[in-house]
Amino acid sequence: MQRSILLLGAFGMLSLFCLVAGCVKQSPNGEAAPGKPAAKGDTNWDVWLQDRPMNTAMRRMWVDCGNIVESTNTQDRLALANASSDLARRAEQFASHFRTLQDANQRTNGAAAEGDWASAGKHLAAAQQGCDNCHFEFWPLAAHGIDSEVLEAWQKTRDAKRAEQVFEAPAKVRLSMGAMRDTMTTAGRAVEERDMERLRDASDRIGKFSGKNLKYWESIAREASAIAAIARTGQLLGVGSRYTTIRSVCTECHETTTEGRGLNPLPWTQD
User: Fold this and answer.
1) Average pLDDT, the chain
2) What's the CA angle centered on 117, arms 112 and 120, to 5 degrees?
3) Considering Cα of 151, then 152, then 156, then 159, what sign does the dihedral take?
4) What b-and-e string marks burial along 23-43, b requiring 16 or more CB atoms within 10 Å of the CB?
5) Which positions ≥6 away from 122 have C-beta within 8 Å?
6) Which distant-in-sequence residues (6+ apart) come within 8 Å of 236 by Cβ?
């Protein structure tokens, strides 16, 4: 469910807190007992390198879909509202990156058409940032050229030479990302050379890419938000049609990008 333009990162203190909190031992009286502190330099970098933010995000949304089906079957409206709200939030997170790309791309083309090439360059940089934001959020460390040697060097406050980037996404996704990288490069050169025809062609390709993906994610976010709203009214009527649309969107995207890796949401089981 991605294509490309250019790069992952930032775990954040919240995930670190959750990791630590989830590993705190409990004493017999229920109070937190101090665990054995990790020895300095005893960090297991393999665990870090095995982290796949994109896979995690997709799995959490799959779980949200399962919770939507189950909570509807059990008529648990609170659980339904929570699961659908979480799904909407996660889908909007993806949509925001493609929306940034689409809006900045349109502004780039519009500014260039008016002869304002300086502004066109600024808007194109914003489009590139939209790509980078997504990559830093969802790419694994290996895709950024970060391996255990780099992490070990950083822990010892030393500079480190990046390793070769390793991409494990499905072939169609890698090809798409490569194509978008080339398209962004073409757009950059077109702006530098004030070549409107070449920029317009690149902008059209960027627009089709961002528009298709934005449509997917906005559709999921919209339908999930609608389900949450239904649940909060104490009703269940209409959840099925909304959920079926979500499942259809997910299935379509998986069929065209994941080469069978994508796990489609649970089928709707209500009449």
Assistant:
1) 85
2) 65
3) negative
4) eeeeeeeeeeeeeeeeeeeee
5) none
6) 72, 75, 77, 80, 230
For the chain, the residue count is 271
Instruction: Of 1-15, 33-47, 125-139, 162-176, give the range with the top mean pLDDT.
Output: 125-139
Q: Are 164 and 183 within 8 A, CB to CB?
A: no
| C-alpha–C-alpha distance, residues 183 and 206, integer Å | 7
Q: Band the pLDDT of 36: cuts 50, 70, 90.
A: very low
Work out whether the CA dihedral 67, 269, 213, 262 comes out positive or negative: positive
With a cut of 70, say whether residue 40 has pLDDT above it: no
**DSSP-derived 3-state class of residue 107:** helix
Helices (H), the chain: 13-22, 45-50, 53-73, 77-113, 117-138, 148-155, 171-192, 196-232, 239-257
Each residue of 47-89: pLDDT tens digit?
999 999 999 999 999 999 999 999 999 999 999 999 999 999 9
Cβ count within 10 A of residue 210 = 26
Sign, CA dihedral 250-216-90-261, equals positive
| C-alpha to C-alpha distance for 46 and 50, rounded to whole angstroms | 6
Q: Are 35 and 19 in contact (CB under 8 A)?
A: no
Domain coordinates of the chain in residue numbers?
A: 13-257
Taking the C-alpha atoms of residue 150 and residue 166, their distance in angstroms, rounded to an integer, is: 14
